[in-house]
Amino acid sequence: MKITTTYLCITALTIVLLMIGYQYTKTNHIAPITVQVHQKATTDKTDIQSIPLKGYIVYDCGDQHPGLCGGWSDRMSGMFSAYVISVMLRKHFLIRYTRSSNLTDYLAPNSFDWKYNSAILANRSWGYQNFVSETPDAIKKQDLTGLDTLFSKDVNFVRINWDYTEHFRKFPGLQKVIPWLLELHFSDIYLKFFNTLFKPTNMITKAVKKVVQNVTKLACAHIRIGRSDTIKVDAKNTDEKQLIHIWNLLKTMEASNYSIFIATDAEFVQRRARTLFKHLLETEGRILHIDRSAEGDGVVGGYKKVVVDFFVLTKCDVLVLTLSGFGIMSSYLNTKVTQLYCLTPHELVPCSRYTVHNFYPGQVLSPV
Predict the structure, then answer these.
(1) Which among 1, 64, 212, 267 has the fewest CB atoms less than 10 Å away?
(2) Which residues on adjacent β-strands are paired with residue 97?
(3) Where are the transmembrane segments (predicted)?
(4) Domain definitions of the chain by residue range
């Protein structure tokens, strides 16, 4: 084969171009800093999570200490905030909940055992702090050292009823410890928290199944009236005149072969529903508020009804909410709902798990 001068020139040019291309790719294709930062974050996260847990944060809602715990959603928010504190401080998380029945009657541990046992107090220091309707300064200032000092006992009992998510998200380095608190929407944070810690007990599962079995389409409303003849010591939440909007929607749903379920804190609402709907589903038990004094027969059954109502609301295809943390919390856990409505002063407005908090701002779940 005869090699010409032209052939040699083309070959040499090709080699030069390949070398230039290789050098460009080598220096510009991947920024090493991205890989290094990612590896550093992964290493730091692993190091933090490998630190052994020391001490306890115990969410408290018991009769050992006076004062309110709040209703069902307040207690859930409090348990969530206490849990996040325990993760940030690398402490074990436990729950002592004996006010208005034991929590373990209704919820069982899921991924780890959070049940409190007084045996942990042996030869350990302990303290109690009450932050109901209050945010500790260390949380407000995102002061991790101050938070560690605040909960410096071996066993730290704490009563909280607010969600501190907005404060937690500002803590430096949170992504290394509990990244999903930054990554997820408010509603999905509670979904993850609840499913990580809890599952309904067999008693609650059977009671819920008894209500919703053989139901193909379910339209529900949680109607929080507030102060009424049923619960006299409470603030007023919903005006009776507003209920016409809910009744009209649910009548339309029933005409489309939906079964109807109403969870409420007022007997007159339940009586009215019985006259309006032929396919009304009900849970057994007395209507009461778990953090308001109740006396007489049926108190224990009433506490159970609160929890069963809550879980039924998480299974609704159509759900109507009023101003109440209870209903909002149920919507966070309801991933099958196809239509969600929020009651405003003059109408029902379509909303979603991701926008419901915009319709009911203020201190419903947190001090926003």
Answers:
(1) 1
(2) 61
(3) 7-24
(4) 56-200, 202-359
